[in-house]
Specification:
alpha+beta; elongated; 3-stranded antiparallel sheet
Length: 116
């Protein structure tokens, strides 16, 4: 994923309604959800929902397909994984950021504490 697309995707997700819609689509999996079901779940009017889904589609986070008279939206998991991969690529100095077997978490020392 190129930097402009990463910035656009993160900006799209930085809005509450779009983030809720996106999380709903991630939970729905590859099958996706009809636009009407998304609108019902988020209690949004059709025009508002359409605006937000179009924004997510332009960033590549969401795709749509026609099934009969319904438009089905689904999260684009390939692009989502690329975005998450970019964000975590150099995480924890190359070490795993996952909790250790004892349950302790690797903690990053703040920049202020390191300099003292």
């Amino acid at each position: 994923m190129e930097m402009p697309r990463i910035v656009d995707a993160l900006a799209a997700l930085a809005q509450e309604t779009r983030l809720k819609a996106y999380r709903l689509l991630v939970e729905a999996g590859p099958a996706g959800l009809a636009a009407g079901r998304i609108g019902e779940a988020l209690d949004l009017p059709a025009a508002t929902l359409s605006f937000h889904l179009a924004h997510l589609s332009r960033t590549g986070l969401v795709s749509s397909r026609q099934e009969g008279r319904f438009v089905i939206y689904s999260a684009d998991f390939k692009n989502m994984n690329e975005l998450v991969g970019y964000l975590t690529e150099n995480c924890c100095g190359g070490r795993s950021c996952a909790p250790s077997r004892k349950g302790a978490r690797n903690e990053t020392v703040s920049r202020a504490r390191r300099s003292t």
